[in-house]
Write a structure and sequence with these properties.
The chain is an alpha+beta fold. The chain has three domains: 88 residues, no CATH class; 136 residues, no CATH class; 256 residues, 3-Layer(aba) Sandwich (Rossmann fold). It contains eleven helices and 38 strands. The strands form nine sheets. Strands 31-32-34-33-35-36-37-38 form an eight-stranded mixed β-sheet, sandwiched between helices. It has a four-stranded antiparallel β-sheet with strand order 1-2-3-4, with no helix packed on it. The longest helix has 19 residues. It is globular, with a radius of gyration of 26 Å.
């Protein structure tokens, strides 16, 4: 009897638990309103706290807002510091740890100013009052008495009710988000916290950015392109200047490619930095190398040259004998440690995940930003190579969701190339079930799909699709030769790789061969056009921010240097432009119903590229539609448009793949 009663009680308890525990649901487009984004973490001087920006969506106002938060290093406390609807970003600790500064245009300001908040409490107060120019960056001096400012000044600062004509005389005259490029200069300034005076540190016709104070506070290292005409190349070098007005700057690096991401060694004698492998004027198919150089200049040490993988985010170890950095390698990004003497690398912490930023803690441990396929970006402490989660902002987002599983696979292309891919399978997919399948192609092209959280592919998988991410040739993470092979040969080997991955999922019983779709944004949209012009097996496509008639964007987009150096001038090498334009010039061979999308203000791949393909499809009677998002640049940032794009993806593919 006792056993019977016990089992009965247990059964009732389990039944009650099953009823009160909500079932997991699929991701849906409106979830874009719930996803938060962490950025710019900063460790307090004593090491007890991490300040960072947290961006959230206000669905009523249809806008993102960024606030400053603070997380304790022990993981026990999380505190929101700002609540302004105007937004705050770039948190920075004063060197004594008493104050936290940030930038904001709150209280009706027309541009960002630095605000100062006492850690003990109270409202933040406005610190700077910059009347001319736009503040873009700043850095505290080690003694806390001065702040280096980065301010962009317009050559014509007069105000007028009627906009003046845009007068342009530059070679590179367009840039996404920035718009038309006129004669603006970006310089460094020194703000004195005691006198409130701003002194000019650099001036002239060139730009200076990214100020980094030397440990003793006497010098500032910065980045500048001081070639005769910076518009005609992508060179950047590291320069050093004494931290006082009218000082003379000194060039530290002389490489004709890019030198950047500089970090002073703890003793102030060396500078760690990144440089490109290419010394050419235009740098596309490339990967960064970790280097060190004396603060006085001279021959640099190329620490990671033999690694043949991109290295990023260099941070010196506490004792200055080595440098931590992030390495991109075949669908992952891991943290490695490089000897400052000979470059010997030790893999510090890795796995099927993606580290996107690191900072050194005062103890010598690391703070990292990291995500994995089922966890959006959070902050983590790394102590003796053990990863410990600090922030938990994504827990509420993830709690109700059943996300797709993600696994890697390798496919062979028609010409024998080996290609690394990722497969997203819906949470409710049955084993052995053939699924409608989408090849969703990354942009770049120099980028990689990796074991990190991907909202787009998770969203499409939640709609019932197997989703394939293809790291086609041209992608990063597989070495320089793998990356460079597509130069001036667009839409060839990449298409072979996409079709090879498609063959794999069909032959292995994953994809229903009668229900295949393809899509992507930017270079992913371009490759969508190339692929449907090559193979008619795809029953639906979505091409975002793409182009097919290549010559039509010469002088229209921001890639003038790429055209000049990779393809040559159209009047000298028009046959190459024609050959690369086959999706448009042979549009009558395309059978795939295709949806075209683009931001109205996109200067990266302007709307004309999508409009031309849409018009060709309408003229030919191929099912199509064109969606233009008003006032959006290359990246769609308006939350309601992000939701709308996901809904349109799903509706379009459902129409043709789920009949």
């Amino acid at each position: 009897m006792k056993k019977t009663v016990l089992f009965a009680v247990l059964a009732i308890s389990l039944g009650t638990f099953a009823q009160t525990t909500p079932a997991k649901r699929q991701l849906k487009p409106s979830d874009v309103y719930r996803l938060q984004s962490l950025s710019d973490p900063q460790i307090s001087p004593e090491g007890n706290w991490v300040a960072y920006s947290l961006s959230s969506v206000d669905s009523v106002k249809n806008k993102r807002n960024s606030d400053i938060w603070m997380q304790s290093w022990d993981g026990k406390e999380s505190i929101q510091l700002t609540f302004s609807p105007d937004g705050e970003s770039k948190p920075r600790w004063s060197p004594d740890g008493k104050y936290l500064s940030f930038t904001s245009s709150r209280n009706g300001l027309t541009g960002s100013q630095i605000w100062l908040m006492d850690r003990r409490g109270g409202e933040a107060k406005q610190l700077t009052d910059i009347k001319k120019g736009d503040l873009s960056d700043y850095a505290w001096s080690p003694d806390g008495k001065k702040i280096a400012l980065v301010i962009t000044n317009d050559a014509d600062t007069t105000k007028s009710k009627s906009p003046k004509p845009i007068v342009i005389d530059r070679f590179h005259f367009k840039q996404d988000v920035e718009g038309y490029l006129m004669k603006k200069t970006t310089h460094l300034y020194l703000y004195n916290l005691e006198t409130k005076k701003i002194d000019t540190l650099t001036k002239g016709i060139y730009d200076e950015t990214s100020p980094k104070w030397s440990p003793d506070g006497t010098q500032i290292a910065f980045i500048s392109n001081r070639t005769e005409d910076p518009d005609r190349n992508e060179n950047t070098d590291i320069w050093v200047i004494d931290a006082k007005p009218n000082a003379t700057m000194k060039q530290i690096t002389t490489f004709t490619g890019q030198d950047y991401a500089h970090e002073w060694s703890p003793d102030g004698k060396q500078i760690a930095y990144l440089r490109t492998t290419s010394a050419e004027s235009y740098i596309m198919y490339d990967q960064s190398i970790l280097c060190t150089v004396s603060k006085d200049g001279g021959e640099p040490k190329l620490l990671s040259k033999s690694l043949d993988r991109p290295v990023n985010s260099p941070r010196w170890s506490k004792d200055g004998t080595s440098i931590f950095a992030i390495v991109s390698d075949d669908r992952t990004r891991y943290i490695a440690n490089f000897s400052a003497v000979d470059g010997k690398m030790t893999k510090f912490v890795g796995g099927n995940r993606s580290f996107t930023g690191i900072e050194r803690h005062t103890s010598g441990n690391l703070l990292a930003s990291m995500s994995d396929p089922q966890t959006p970006n959070e902050l983590y402490a790394i102590e003796a190579a053990v990863v410990r989660k600090l922030t938990k902002h994504q827990d509420a987002f993830l709690a109700p969701l059943a996300l797709a599983t993600v696994e890697g696979f390798t496919s062979k292309s028609k010409d024998g190339a080996s290609v690394s891919n990722l497969l997203y399978l819906p949470a409710m997919a049955q084993k052995g079930q053939k699924l409608p399948t989408l090849m969703f192609i990354h942009g770049g092209p120099v980028a990689q799909d990796e074991f990190s959280y991907d909202m787009s592919r998770q969203m499409l998988a939640a709609a019932g699709y197997a989703v394939v991410a293809v790291n086609y040739r041209g992608s990063s993470g597989r070495g320089l030769d793998f990356c460079k092979i597509i130069s001036a040969d667009w839409g060839n080997k990449e298409v072979l790789d996409i079709l090879g991955a498609t063959d794999y999922v069909v032959q292995n019983g994953i994809a229903d061969p009668e229900k295949l779709g393809i899509g992507g944004w930017s270079y992913g949209g371009i490759l969508t056009n190339y692929t449907i012009a090559t193979d008619t097996r795809f029953k639906a496509a979505s091409s975002g921010a793409g182009v097919s008639l290549i010559s039509s964007l010469y002088g229209v987009d921001q890639y003038i240097l790429q055209y000049e150096h990779e393809l040559g001038s159209p009047w000298k090498n028009f046959d190459k432009y024609i050959a690369l334009s086959y999706p448009f010039l042979k549009a009558d061979r395309i059978k795939t119903p295709t949806q075209f999308m683009v931001g109205q203000s996109d200067f990266n791949v302007p709307s004309v590229g999508s409009e031309q393909m849409y018009q060709a499809f309408r003229s030919l009677g191929i099912p199509t539609e064109l969606i233009i998002y008003p006032d959006q640049f290359h990246g769609i940032t308006n939350p309601s448009y992000q939701k709308d794009r996901f809904e349109r993806y799903i509706n379009w593919f459902n129409k043709y793949l789920k009949k």
